[in-house]
């Protein structure tokens, strides 16, 4: 069985908002502690008046006698709410950063593999160019040796030069 309990307070304007709201919170908490197990659902009209009526008066007197404490409590609750909002915002930012970090990790892995491929291709090109360079040097050396032999053979026919 579902039941609904409504709490209401009427206060003069000079009391402000914090004291009546604090009173309602205290009454609600106390009522739920005492009757939250189901006693309130089976209670008849005004049957809890004798038992809970004096508690209402105690809560009202406390709120009237300790407005500075209630104001401090309201300020602390407001600060907690503000901190909670900031923390939720920070958590959202961290989650966004986490997603961005994952993207950066993926991109860096991709760049690393591309760098390895580039290095391999660079090594192949360097070897190929070295071989091409050596071929040209060997061809030039062969031509120079051939020219020297031609010159020596033309100056000294039959190897009789002395």
What can be said about the biggest beta sheet? none
Low confidence ranges = none
Gap between N and C termini: 132 Å
Helix content range of the residues, please?
A: over 70%
* H-E order: HHHH
Radius of gyration over all CA atoms, rounded:
47 Å
Question: How many runs of DSSP E, i.e. beta strands?
Answer: 0
**Helix- and strand-based class?**
mainly alpha
Strand content: under 5%
Question: Can you count the helices?
Answer: 4
Mean pLDDT: 82
User: What general outline do the C-alpha atoms trace?
Assistant: rod-shaped
Pfam family, one: Synaptobrevin
Transmembrane segments: 136-155
Membrane topology: Single-pass type IV membrane protein
Keywords: Cell membrane, Coiled coil, Endosome, Membrane, Protein transport, Transmembrane, Transmembrane helix, Transport
Account of the 3D structure:
One of its GO terms (cellular component) is early endosome membrane. It holds the Pfam family Synaptobrevin. It is found in: Cell membrane; Early endosome membrane. Keywords: Cell membrane, Coiled coil, Endosome, Membrane, Protein transport, Transmembrane, Transmembrane helix, Transport. Involved in the targeting and/or fusion of transport vesicles to their target membrane. The protein is mainly α and 162 residues long. 79% of the residues lie in helices and 0% in strands. The chain is built from four helices and no strands. Helix 1 packs antiparallel against helix 3. It is rod-shaped. The mean pLDDT is 82.
